[in-house]
Each structure stands twice: as structure tokens, then as C-alpha cells.
Queue: 2 jobs
Job 1
Amino acid sequence: MRQFAKPALALVDSMRAAAAIKPLQAIAFGGAPGSNSHQAAMQFAPDALPLPCFSFEDALEAVDSGAAGCAMIPIENSQHGRVADIHFLLPESGLAIVAEHFMRITHCLMALGDGPFEAAYSHPQALGQSHRFLSERGIVGLSHADTAGAAAFVAESGKTNIAAIAPALAANLYGLEIVEREVEDAHDNTTRFVVLAKDALDLVELAGAQAMTTFIFEVKNIPAALYKALGCFATNGVNMTKLESYQKGASFAATQFFADIEGAPGEPRVDAALDELAFQTNGVRLLGTYAQARKRG
Ligand SMILES: O=C(O)C(=O)C[C@]1(C(=O)O)C=C[C@@H](O)C=C1
């Protein structure tokens, strides 16, 4: 069911009503109020109106339809890697990345009782980030659309033998007890989020800031295709900070890559690298240029 559990509905409705009055000030996020994405949105833009959406896809759609000025989307986690689907959703959304935001993620085990628990519900990323904690206690991780939504679901269930893994705020919002704090397996657990909007940033706004540029490209199906693609950045002295491969479709013939570099189009060495990349590959698509939120290297 693509609907938040009952304990979240009043808050979701009031946030949606406030956002509907001033959509340009609204920041859409995937998850119920109290989710990590909600908290990242508020850290990034404390005066914005948070707009809860059931999924990341719905949050992107809210920007596309004009229901929100931008969306806050998790893209990768230091412990558990890529956030599923984002590599397909971002390019397909047609939106531009206008900012990045890093947030230290800390999870709590929360429930109506104090255990023992057969299962804990959460977003698959949060379950992955707390994998050791759960397996040491014999608690089965069960996937839910988001962390805070899982807390609302556990509250609605009335059951004392299930728990949620979610931010502390969610326990507060949905009336659960925090059984254990900091259940993430690594204590520097951090998620990188990106902010997406309809219009790309005007590069003039980035003057003086270290810029990042995110793009996707598809290599030709020939030997050394990736070597040649990466050579474009090596010879032009451009620092690549992220490179991830993924398959599009089921042919497995042409691999796509999702990449971040330091620098912006308009800088001669970046322009030269991207021009050469276009020549060496089946296509390059820029997803956005924005200010670096954390120094790399
Ligand atoms: O469910 C949430 O709380 C989310 O905001 C999603 C999400 C993610 O998908 O990465 C965000 C940050 C954390 O890494 C865990 C979960």
C-alpha cells in the first residue's frame, strides 16, 4: 500500500497543506516526517516547507509538477553504498542537481515494548547500515518504504514483538520507546544527499566556490573503452571523485557510468575533458554542477 501508516497521517496532511500554499518554498523528500531525508532537508534549508512524499520517485515528481521547488534525495551511504534506483531515477527525472548535503546518520531501535523482537522494519539502507547489530541479536530485518514510516507502521500495529530502526525523532513523533541508540554498525555512518530542482544553477552563482559536476556516460562496447574514457580526465588534470557502473536494460552490452568530478563546465580543463569524453563514448549527459559541500581528498 503506497500510503503512510495512520499515526503519520495528521502530520503528513498538515505539512502537505502548508507546502501547497507556497510550493516554491517546499522541499520534497521521500519518507514520513522524521525520516533521515526530512532531517537532511531541514538541515539544508531550515526555513523551507518540508513536503513528505511516499517514495523518492514521488519526491522528484513533486518538483516536476511544481508542487515543490526542490527535492532532497539520498544518493550514497559511506557504509552501505549506492541508494537503489537513484541512478535511474535522477536521469529520468529531467531535474538538475543544484546542491549536495552530507549528514551523519544515526539509527535507533524503537518499539512499543522492550523486546524480545522477532523483526525490525526499516528502509533497506538503514537495515544494511545496522546489519551486524540485527544479526547479533537474531532480529530479522524487514524492508519498509522509509525509516520513519516504519516507526509509524510499528506504532499502528500495536504489536510488542516487532521494532523499527529509525531516527530518534520518529520515536517521539509516533509514540514509540527507544530501546537502543546508535545501532548503526559504523560510528562515522554518513549519507550523501543531493538537492534537485527544475532549473540548473547559473554557474555565476558558484563563483569562488569549489564546484562539483555530476554526469552519466555510456562507454562503447570495445576493448579499453573505460580506460579511454578515464584518460580524458587524466590528461586534462581533472579530479574524479566518484565512478560507479550500472547496467541499463538487459543487454549487458554497453555499461553506463555515474561520475562526479571537481570543477565546472566553463573551466577550460573541464570543457576539454568533457568534449573528449563525448568523443570516446556513446554519450554524456550532465546532471548538474553545484558547490562542493565537503572537501574531497
Ligand atoms: O528512510 C529514511 O529515513 C531515508 O531518508 C532514506 C535513507 C536512504 O535511503 O539512504 C536516508 C538516509 C539513511 O542512509 C537511511 C535511509
Note: The two ends are 43 Å apart (CA to CA).
Job 2
Amino acid sequence: VFLLKQLFSTRPPAPYPPGPKALPLIGNVLDMPTEQEWKTFSKWGQVWGDFMSLNVLGQTLIILNSSKLAIEMLDRKSSIYSDRPFLMMAGEIVGWKDTLALTPYGDRFRSIRKMFHGAIGTKSSIARYLPVEQRETAKFLKRVLNAPHAIADHIRWTAGSIILELAYGYKVKEESDPIVNVVDQATEQFSLATAPGAFLVDVIPALRHVPEWLPGADWKKKAASWSRTLTDMVNVPLDFVQRQMAAGVAAPSITQSLLENPELTAEERSTIKWAAASLYSGGADTTVSAIYTFYLAMTLYPEVQRKAQAEIDAVVGNDRLPNHQDRQHLPYVEALVKEVLRWNPVTPLGVPHRVTEDDVHEGYYIPKGSVVITNIWQILHDPRTYSDALEFNPSRFLGAQPEQDPRSFCFGFGRRVCPGMKLADASIFISCAMSLAVFDIAKAVDACGAVLEPTVDYTSGTISHPKPFPCSIKARSLKAEALIRSAE
Ligand code: HEM
């Protein structure tokens, strides 16, 4: 009777969502893809449906392959679907848990989100930062003109300098900037620390207590060094703003305006410090991927490029660069920006959420503590929503029956939805519009005159980037060249 009772009490209230058969103890570990996981999850979706579950070493993973499920669960039931998974190595030991993206759902989360909303959450709040974007993007054009082969570096540099100026009023040095370097290092170490299966301590948390000198505990030295990089990433730019404020010469920035309140508690100061660091770490790498995707798409789809250029020529003319005020008059460029965000999404699997209460959805059991992954790539390539989804075709968003705006999906869902989406959208627009106005982007040709076909291939990881591809970037005309040189 006792055993029967036990059996009865542990039986789930409903079946788990379907998925590949799990082995005892290790579950689906051996099934888990290690590269471009979104593609495997999409393939599995064809077998198991939109709503799937996996078990990895006892951890339930829920995969959502449709926007309907993502909205119904992460948005409509957001009071229980808004936590983040616990990451022992990256979060606890290295210290990333204090940044917004890994902060558990709760009061601290709410106060950082509130700061973000006030600073960059609305069209009017970001308006004051648009001139910085325009100025820095104009400089970007000049760098590209001078060294087109280094396009990927120019994109990264520009995104970094925009976000550092907005967050801290810090103007990046032209060559090797110490703050940019420390942030690049920290974000790279974050990827290493969160690589699935890289650290045993994520599976056996007690290993956290082993002493550093023990054979095999080298990872602890690594963790300590990564933790120092993270501390520098957070403190160095903050010290800069504080020094500037003390000297009365601080440029306007998000951190400066938040720190201006003379009655801040120590806790509020700490929250501001981490909010600013979250802004930088969330904003530096993401728009970079989207803008590089834009260059890839323009290399592959010359007819789209010509159409967008014709629109800019007609609306803006050739005597000045486009600006944010032109946006409402450039419907094709607007559609092109949407297609950049849809065609190869920056975060193909979003950022995982964690469920804080047991739930039953569509008759399936989601136990408390499950990690929920939205397959944003699949949602943006769902044939029920997008026709010929692998094609780059901005026209899908125009006409009498436009397809669904991808910005409803590509920035995630519910209370965790990307707080930088308005800023990201503005940055991507201005980069696309200004680049189209002055450059012809085309396939590169080798020394023998053979065309170098770019391949559409993307890196794995939370933020996915196009792998480097050959392309040719030239000023559209002598007038365009003069405009770039005079623009800053
Ligand atoms: C094309 C550009 C971008 C894309 C596609 C993107 C996408 C996303 C996604 C999918 C999430 C997770 C949402 C969820 O959990 O459901 C996220 C979170 C976040 N994003 Fe973005 N993002 C972009 C740009 C930015 C920018 C420019 C910033 C900062 C200025 C930023 C800051 C953040 C932060 C701090 C979070 C964590 C939010 C939280 O956990 O509450 N992102 N983003």
C-alpha cells in the first residue's frame, strides 16, 4: 500500500509533452545537438509537433516551436514563466547572475527593468540618442570606404562605440580602446562559461567547494580570472562616469542621469552599476550580427538592394545621408529591416526562461523548474506565417496582406522581452539606410575574375553571427564618396 501510495503521489498530473525517447538517468543527453540546435529542434518538431519536451540529466527542457505557444505560455502566463535557469559556473561562480539577462525573477529584476524602461523603453526616451547613432554610423561609412575588407570589424567597433557613449558618455578611442577590449574579453568568456557541457560543476554543484589546488580543479583558476574580467567590465566604465561627474564634465548618458539622484542607497547604486553593464553586454554583440546579416543579404540579393536604393534616391536624394526622420517615408527600407531580423535571427533560440510553478498546458505537464526554450528561428521560418521563408524578400511585409512583423517574435516574449528592442531597431535602420544610400554591395571577384559565392552559414551560440563571407563594397558614385568623406 505504501509503495502504491508513493507511486500515486509522484505520478505527474498529465503527460509530459512528446519528444525523443529518454534513456534512464542521462535522459536525452546523447540526442542533444551541439551545433545550430535550432535546426535540430525544428526537424524534431516535424516529428513531435510544436510542443516538445526533453530530459537532460534530470532537467526537463520544453521546446516551443510555434509563436502561438510562446505567447500563450511566456506572455499570458508570465507570472510563472519569467525566471531564468540557474547557471552555476557563469552565473554564480563567475558572477554574471547580477546582469539583467541572468537575474532571477523578483524585486531586483523589476527595479532593473524599470530603469531600462525609463532610459530606452519608449520611442521618446530613445529620441535623444538618435543623433549619436547617426554621427557614429556616418563615421562607420568612412571606415568601410577606407577598408571595406574589414567590414565585420567596423560593424563591431561602431556598435560598441554607440552603446558605450549612450550608457556612459564614453567616447571610444580610434585604436585599441581599453574599455572595448575588456568588454569583448568578458563577453567572450561568458560564451565559454555558458557553453553546454563545458563545466562539470553545472551538473554537480557541490564541486564548487573543491579547493583550487586539487588536480583537475584548474577550472577554478579560470573562473577566478573570468570573474576579475567581469568586475573590470562593470567597474571601469562606471568609475569613468563618476570621475567625470565629480569634475562636473560628464557628458549626458544613461548612467549619469540615473546617478544624478543625490539620495541613492548603496543598493540602488549597485543596481545602476549592473543595469549599465547589462545594457552594454546585451547591446554590443546583437545589433552587430543583424547588420552583418544585412551586408550578407545585400551581397546575395542585388535586386532587393537596387529597389531600396531607388526608394532612398527618390525620397532623400543624393545630397545628404538618410536620417531617422526619413524612416516613415521609406516603406521598402522599413520592410528590409524587418526581413533582416527575420531571415536569420540574431538569437535563434532566444534566452531560456524557467518555470516557477507546476503548470498544465494543452493537456501537457510542465513541472516547476523546467527550462523553456523558444525556437525563434522556427517561428520566423514557420510556413504557416511566412511564405518561402528561406528567401530574403522584404516585399512579404508590403501590399494588402503583409506577413506578420517579426519584431513581435525576434525579441523574445513576456516580461523578459528584450528591453533594448527600440534602440536595436533604430540602430539597424540607420545602418541599413545609410549604407544603401552610398554603397554598392556585391559579390567579390578573385584575381582571375571568378565570382566568389558567399555561403549563408551562421555560428552556434545564444547570439548567432554570419560566418565571414567575401563581398565587394564600393561607393555608388563620386558624389556618394564625397558625401561619406564630408558627412561626420
Ligand atoms: C537585433 C538586436 C537584438 C535582438 C534580436 C535581441 C533579442 C533579445 C532576446 C530574444 C532576449 C531574450 C528575451 C526573452 O527572454 O524572452 C533579449 C534580452 C535582453 N536584451 Fe536584447 N536583443 C537585441 C538587442 C539588444 C540591445 C541593443 C540591448 C541593449 C541596449 C539589449 C539588451 C537586452 C537585455 C539586457 C536582455 C535581458 C532581459 C531580461 O532578462 O529581462 N538587447 N534580447
Note: Residues 100-101, 278-279, 282-283, 286-287, 290, 346-347, 350-351, 353, 410-413, 416-420, 423-424 surround protoporphyrin IX containing FE (CB under 6 Å).
